[in-house]
Specification:
Order of helices and strands of chain A: EHEEHEHEHEEHEHHHH
CATH class of the largest domain in chain A: Alpha Beta
Number of strands of chain A: 8
Helix content of chain A: 40-55%
Shape of chain A: globular
Strand order of the largest sheet of chain A: 3-2-1-4-5-6-7-8
Structural class of chain A: alpha/beta
Distance between the termini of chain A: 67 Å
CATH superfamily of the largest domain in chain A: NAD(P)-binding Rossmann-like Domain
CATH architecture of the largest domain in chain A: 3-Layer(aba) Sandwich
Largest sheet of chain A: 8 strands, mixed
Strand content of chain A: 15-25%
Oligomer: homodimer
Radius of gyration of chain A: 19 Å
Chain lengths: 241, 241
């Protein structure tokens, strides 16, 4: 089995490096300045598309363009596994654009270089079969479980609904608080230190990921509306005193 | 030296218990249902006011009433140390209401039963001399340092300004997120778990503390305005895409 990672941004670099502990991994990025991590061979796009299993680690907003670009150049029975932080949108695109002889699994590793710093144990990873054999789904599911992840089979719509009110709201709060430009403080309480950790962690991720999380998850708009309603309710309680 | 703790709510109970590891501590609450922790003698108000050093652990909004109630009944040279989470307001009240022969130190132990669960080490404690001898200020400052706290001498205005944008914003975010009624989730990311910890910790404190933090700190209104402006700015960036 030969493994390729398409996209070597912050997450792709991390992902290729992680997989290279267990597999022979090749990496490619459309950006010539992106390097592959040590242990991963940087190849050209043609060679990358020749691998049996290809993880897509491109931004959500780049998915359509990338799928149209690679769809006709994949070998029959190539397994494509996306890693997008939203699922309904890329799952629909993959089913629509990728040729019928290409296999597809949707996945969302719900962690990254920051949150996995202390190890992978118990970190959540969502998987959903779209067009694949049970055998290959089980293989990857077992592999991810084997390296310590908490693998959950969840359909794209359920994922997006739940992720909007967990990951989505966390990134939203993180970006809002970052905009306030809060500082480290000598009188920081334990809770405030946690708030700063959320800011640091969410803002280490690319701005594009934040935008895409808020834009391509159909439930984040509802999350933001509900959050703003909660602010209004709390403000009314304060004002009525 | 005899020590009294006036007020046995969530914080007063915690504080009396903490001090009783080192001193003989008596406790009183206006609420007859409030019990003293093990090791602390529950006394009546008259006996409590007979102690040399009295920590006030009443809610910020009860300070004026309590000071008027006890002011004329204190022995000369009694040392009053408040523990309010805002400082300008109670410092002004104490100086105005307490008789001139009563000594006063303003303090804010910036932790509570939740945040001190893993020990006191490095937790911040603000102190400010209002009407006292250097010797007694140093005694208490050294004592709190000796049990592991990070004691900082900070004037009430600086405290309130900085606390609004650290403790104040954390409690505000905690209450807003709590209003959203978010749930534990199987797909919780590391950041989301931190957000839930903030909610749990801030909402374990009494609702009255939240209200008082937002109401009696002159800088929290500015903090909320700035936070709402940040939300507007982030929303505009999202809407402009």
């Amino acid at each position: 089995m030969s493994i390729g990672v398409y996209g070597l941004g912050r997450f792709g670099f991390f992902w290729a490096k992680l997989l290279s502990r267990y597999f022979n991994v090749k990496g490619f990025s459309r950006n010539p300045e992106r390097e592959a991590p040590p242990g991963v061979k940087r190849v050209d796009e043609h060679e990358l598309l020749d691998q049996n299993v290809i993880f897509l680690c491109v931004s959500i907003s780049a998915m359509e363009e990338v799928l149209r670009r690679i769809g006709g150049r994949l070998k029959p029975d190539t397994l494509i596994i996306d890693t997008c932080s939203v699922k309904v949108y890329p799952a629909g695109l993959m089913e629509e654009i990728l040729p019928g002889n290409v296999r597809i699994i949707a996945s969302h590793p719900m962690f990254g270089p920051d949150s996995a710093r202390d190890g992978l144990n118990g970190l959540p990873m969502i998987m959903w079969p779209l067009r694949n054999s049970d055998r290959e789904f089980d293989f990857w599911s077992d592999f991810f479980k084997g390296i310590g992840l908490k693998v959950l089979k969840m359909d794209p719509d359920s994922h997006d609904r739940e992720a909007a009110f967990t990951q989505g709201i966390t990134h939203y709060i993180g970006r809002v608080i970052a905009d306030l430009d809060l500082k480290e403080s000598e009188i920081a309480t334990v809770g405030y230190r946690k708030l700063l950790e959320i800011v640091a962690q969410t803002c280490n991720d690319p701005w594009q990921l934040f935008i895409d999380l808020q834009h391509f998850n159909p439930y984040t708009a509802i999350m933001r509306e509900k959050l703003h309603s909660s602010i209004d309710r709390i403000m009314k309680k304060l004002d009525s005193l």
